[in-house]
């Protein structure tokens, strides 16, 4: 990772990199910090990832809150992992989520997945609509942030404990605990 405008006084070790992230391989991703950031709809956002440009933009104010920074940074990093995960593993994760939905499980591990889950329509999963695929991606990234961000508790971690355990097991079984490709 390359942090070109990273404030050096953030952490004692001189890096914002959360210690709990699995080994990372792949080409560098440029990470820049901005005072303000807007999403595609013009609303304030904490971060954005540009996969083709291999670039992340993170709201500078997050540097004042190491836990939120770690959680959001890991979430954004895992967008690169989702891209390289491959269809077999992505579909496997989709099946895990489909099982949760069949059980009418509420909650999620981050707001980006939570609000998308709430917008799903009846046939989205079966037809694999864009809405379903975006939910799956955001759920994957929020789950990774919960697993690897080093944050034990957060108000956005609302998924029931047994479902969290199933997701943790999926990440381990898929080999993501051992290393990630970006």
What does this structure look like?
- With 182 residues, this protein is mainly alpha-helical.
- It has one domain.
- The chain contains six helices and five strands.
- It has helices at residues 66-85, 87-102, 111-118, 124-127, 130-148, 161-173, and strands at 24-25, 30-34, 47-50, 55-59, 180-181.
- The strands form two sheets. A three-stranded mixed sheet has the order 2-4-3, with helices on one face. Strands 1-5 form a two-stranded parallel ribbon.
- Helix 1 (66-85) crosses helix 5, helix 2 (87-102) crosses helix 5 and helix 3 runs antiparallel to helix 5.
- Residues 2-14 have low confidence and may be disordered.
Features:
182 residues; mainly alpha; 5 strands; 3-stranded mixed beta sheet; disordered N terminus; two-stranded parallel sheet
Blueprint (SSEs and pairs):
Blueprint: E1 24-25, E2 30-34, E3 47-50, E4 55-59, H1 66-85, H2 87-102, H3 111-118, H4 124-127, H5 130-148, H6 161-173, E5 180-181
Parallel strand pairs: 1-5, 2-4
Antiparallel strand pairs: 3-4
């Amino acid at each position: 990772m390359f942090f070109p405008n990273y404030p050096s006084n953030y952490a004692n070790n001189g890096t914002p990199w959360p210690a709990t992230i699995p080994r990372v391989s792949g080409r560098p991703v440029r990470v820049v910090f901005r005072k303000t950031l807007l999403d595609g709809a013009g609303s304030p956002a904490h971060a954005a990832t540009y996969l083709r440009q291999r670039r992340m933009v993170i709201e500078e104010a997050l540097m004042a809150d190491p836990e939120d920074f770690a959680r959001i940074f890991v979430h954004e990093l895992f967008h690169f992992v989702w891209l390289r995960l491959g269809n077999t593993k992505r579909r496997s994760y989709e099946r895990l989520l489909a099982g949760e939905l069949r059980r009418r499980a509420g909650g999620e591990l981050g707001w980006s997945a939570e609000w998308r889950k709430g917008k799903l329509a009846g046939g989205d999963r079966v037809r694999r609509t864009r809405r379903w695929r975006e939910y799956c991606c955001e759920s994957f990234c929020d789950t990774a942030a919960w697993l690897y961000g080093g944050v034990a508790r957060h108000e956005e971690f609302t998924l029931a404990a047994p479902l969290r355990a199933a997701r943790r097991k999926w990440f381990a079984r898929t080999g993501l605990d051992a290393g990630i490709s970006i």
